[in-house]
Amino acid sequence: MERRVALKSLGGMLAAPAIHSNPTPAAQQPVLRIAHLTDIHLKDEFGAPAKFVQCLHHVQQQTPKVDLILNGGDIVFDMNKENLSSINEQWQLTRKLQQAECSVPVKYCLGNHDIWWYENSQGQATYGKQYALDQLHLGKPYYSFTQSGWKFIVLDSVHLDIDQTWYIGKLGEAQFSWLAAELAATPRTTPVLVLSHIPILTASLMIQDDIVNRWQMLGATCTPIRRK
Length: 228
Prior knowledge:
The protein is 27% helix and 15% strand. It is of the alpha/beta class. It has one domain: Metallo-dependent phosphatases (Purple Acid Phosphatase, chain A, domain 2), CATH 3.60.21.10. A hairpin with a 2-residue loop joins strand 5 and strand 6. The chain is globular. The protein starts with a helix and ends in a 33-residue tail after the last strand.
């Protein structure tokens, strides 16, 4: 099975899961329903805007209704390999469609394609994560919030590697300390959902294209969260 087919099938099962205030088999009544949308890579080509609108409408037509959308990153097509005019157009298109076609609240985390790390752009104000944070009205790339008795933790898992030429999945010391404090301050009875772009552990490499049983986890495909 090709990776795209497998992920599409999996995504259909996880499109809008219901979650419960008490994550036990005895819990019967869901308190919140969420839709997880990720890697939309929106740009004004390939009929993508119309397909994104169709996706948003599909989410909003669900019964029971969807209360919250979690966007897992790679919101726009690609900041890193585009010029500033193309980057601005991608974000303007994203905001326009989101505001016009979606009434469900959305929480975002950054993906590697949402960050301008073009090597010739170092030193410019747009370089790094701040531009995308401004577009999303986020003060920080990682944050937490509570809703319907659940604690949601959104992580910033995408960072430049030590040689500054490629990204890697990690948290860094400051974010790790913040995460530890967040979890310590959360009652043990409170269910927690963690959202990140680069997963903490991924199974996608096992089904990547024609590669089967590939067990090597690369730095750009998983996020180790333990402190050294």
